[in-house]
Automatic annotation (TrEMBL), chains A, B:
One of its GO terms (biological process) is response to stress. InterPro entries: HTH_MarR-typ (IPR000835), MarR/SlyA-like (IPR039422), WH-like_DNA-bd_sf (IPR036388), WH_DNA-bd_sf (IPR036390). It holds the Pfam family MarR_2. PROSITE patterns: HTH_MARR_2 (PS50995). Residues 1-116 form the HTH marR-type domain. It comes from Ensifer adhaerens (Sinorhizobium morelense). One of its GO terms (molecular function) is DNA-binding transcription factor activity. This is MarR family transcriptional regulator.
DNA sequence: TTCAAAAGAAACGCTTGCGTAACGGTCCGT
DNA sequence: ACGGACCGTTACGCAAGCGTTTCTTTTGAA
């Protein structure tokens, strides 16, 4: 059961969610960081720097830096892979799950407010 | 007729749209810039720096800088208000309308792809 | 055992956004 | 006509992200 949106609803939803997120959340993650965060939490693990870089279509340092930032915020965690110690496995955190849960609620709330 | 979303659909939609936007669009507007852009195009004019700052809950220089950036990209335009020459009225552009139209299409497309 | 390849991080210089504070132009009541 | 209030911009020092390049560790095959 897909989500059917009119053009007005689509942009209106993005508008009100962005607006509310700007007003409420001081963190102001970039679009890239948000895409990485959602990828980590919505797609089955394991996640690696290399894999995320390929999925996003960006270079590896972009992922490393984003993980630095979001790690400092407690939204993700990094653990060395013992199978292949060159790899780093990105782990979810309770804070990260909570953050996205609240963000999901925001989207749902704003979706309900879209007219037409 | 509001938009009813499950938690999975809400985050999934944001996920796939962000991902596609990162892959396709090199501009990478910040969340603030996107919120400003949508405010300008979805809410009836006139728009001023002061008004946008109040709506977004940010300071005026934030708006000025965002307008600098998006102006250079051709997404918005600025015109002095002849009624009160202290004011600057923010104008929409053809390029900006086109940009948001494509973005809206992206949201609609990704919405259709959300399961459940 | 040796060595090229791979993964992630760190280093480099640059660009862009931030918050605060100060500034120049404009309006309007006195 | 003067002075305060208002509007948007600019200046300043700082923090964070970017792309490219280099480095370190680890792996696996010759």
């Amino acid at each position: 059961m897909p989500v059917e949106l009119t053009p007005s609803q689509a942009l209106g939803l993005w508008h009100t969610v962005s607006l509310e997120q700007v007003r409420v959340d001081g963190r102001d993650l970039t679009l890239r960081q948000m895409a990485i965060l959602l990828q980590i939490y919505l797609v089955p693990p394991p996640h690696t720097v290399r894999g995320l870089a390929a999925t996003l279509g960006v270079t590896k340092p972009v992922i490393t830096r984003a993980l630095d930032t979001m790690g400092a915020l407690g939204l993700v965690d990094r653990v060395r892979d013992d199978r292949d110690r060159r790899n780093v496995v990105i782990k979810r955190t309770v804070d990260g799950a909570l953050y996205l849960e609240k963000f999901g609620d925001l989207i749902i709330d704003q979706g309900r407010k879209q007219p037409k």
